[in-house]
Design brief:
Elements (H helix, E strand, L loop, with lengths): L3 E6 L3 H11 L5 E7 L5 H8 L3 E5 L7 H11 L4 E6 L4 H10 L3 E4 L4 H12 L4 E2 L1 H12 L5 H4 L2 H11 L4 H8 L3 H15 L4 H10 L12
Parallel strand pairs: 1-2, 1-3, 3-4, 4-5, 5-6
Helix pairs in contact: 3-4, 4-11, 8-10, 8-11, 9-10
């Protein structure tokens, strides 16, 4: 069997070393590169030509959705396995649409990582069992229509948030005070049942409320 070449992209040194050490025990998996800084990611992929990239979903220095899309375009044979601490439907769906082949959680059993690497290397999708449960549960729920809940002004602000606009820019564009914008954003978070800007934009993208452009990291 061909050895699966893997690059680990994880900014936390202890986690990255632990993952590399665990994977070194597998005869069919070889860690050929480790990335702690997102700015080195593309250069490492170009140099090492791995089969699989294990990508931390929240590594500073990049927008993970934009990175996944760009990698998928530049390296169509590369399989991206996302490693995340967030078990949210919006993150999972957004990253799978952006080009990721799999999504597992950082506190999943270690064997889930090796299973995921082997699965995506064989061009299969791979989601940990807890992520599958979340997607199934969300499919069973009756989702309300956000357009009916959000006011026209809130929709305007959500669209500007999706374009990466910060509060002062939104206030200037809509001729509002920054405090008024903050109040609107709090209402948006409450209505969409999210806690931050990235989640709000991911929700809007996945429900067709704004154009399909990736949100900027906050």
């Amino acid at each position: 069997m061909e050895v699966i070449k893997v690059v680990l992209a994880e900014d936390h040194h202890v986690i990255r070393v632990a993952l590399a050490s665990f994977l070194a025990q597998e005869q069919d998996i070889e860690v050929v590169g480790e990335v702690a800084d997102a700015t080195l990611l593309f250069a490492t992929i170009a140099e090492q030509q791995p089969h699989v990239l294990v990508l931390d979903a929240h590594m500073p220095g990049h927008n993970v959705l934009k990175t996944a899309k760009k990698l998928h375009t530049q390296y169509p044979d590369l399989r991206i396995l996302v490693l995340s601490a967030y078990a949210r439907r919006e993150y999972v769906v957004g990253l799978l649409r952006a080009g990721a082949s799999g999504y597992i959680l950082k506190d999943d059993h270690q064997e889930t990582l090796t299973q995921g690497i082997r699965a995506v290397a064989r061009n299969r999708r791979w989601l940990s069992s807890r992520i599958m449960d979340i997607l199934i549960q969300s499919a069973d729920q009756e989702w309300y229509t956000a357009e009916e809940e959000l006011t026209d002004r809130e929709m305007d602000i959500l669209r500007l948030m999706a374009q990466g606009q910060r509060n002062p820019q939104i206030a200037g564009a809509l001729h509002l005070t920054e405090q008024t914008v903050k109040n609107y954003i709090r209402n948006i978070f409450r209505k969409l049942n999210v806690t931050d800007r990235v989640d709000a934009v991911l929700y809007a993208l996945n429900h067709g409320l704004v154009p399909q452009e990736p949100p900027q990291d906050s």
